[in-house]
What does this fold into?
Amino acid sequence: MAKNGNRSSMDNYAFRKAITRDVDEIYHLIEKRIIWMDKNNLNQWNRTNYLESYPRAYFINKVEAGQLYVMEDKLMGKVVGAVVLLEEDKRWTNDGSKNYYIHNLVSDTEVPGVGIKMINLCEQMALDNGVDAVRLDCQASNTKLNEYYERLGYMYVGDVQEGCYFGNKREKKLEKFMLN
It folds into this structure.
């Protein structure tokens, strides 16, 4: 329990598969995050035409495919984070291992800790499903984000280029005992 007697801040949140009506809230979070990136001089979505590459229709498609997850504030009834979780990714060579791929991770700039909580929950889902590693990529020039993922155990394993996007591929090998 927190010092003030309240439950921990993540107790009021639910991680669930997204539904179509969540897409507008997710899109708003992305727009808000892009403004935050500009204000904090971070190069990521704000430098890669992100909203053109990932229009609302993309997220609706991911809902229909069961690949989009949200973190919902149960007390406020609002989405505070989202992530696409894939079992395949064309950016990666199929090496015979079973992997999950994190994409389009977004969290509310006003709710600290939601991003890492969603990553941890994706890792737990991977462990529960016998997955070998979780993979992601991020803008190569975004030093802060690359350092953040490295601290979380996501090691640099290669480069990716798609249009004007130049990224670093990162991977975290999972151990059965890791999240017990």
Notes: The chain is about 30% helix and 30% strand. Confidence is low (pLDDT under 50) at residues 1-8. The chain has one domain: 12-173.
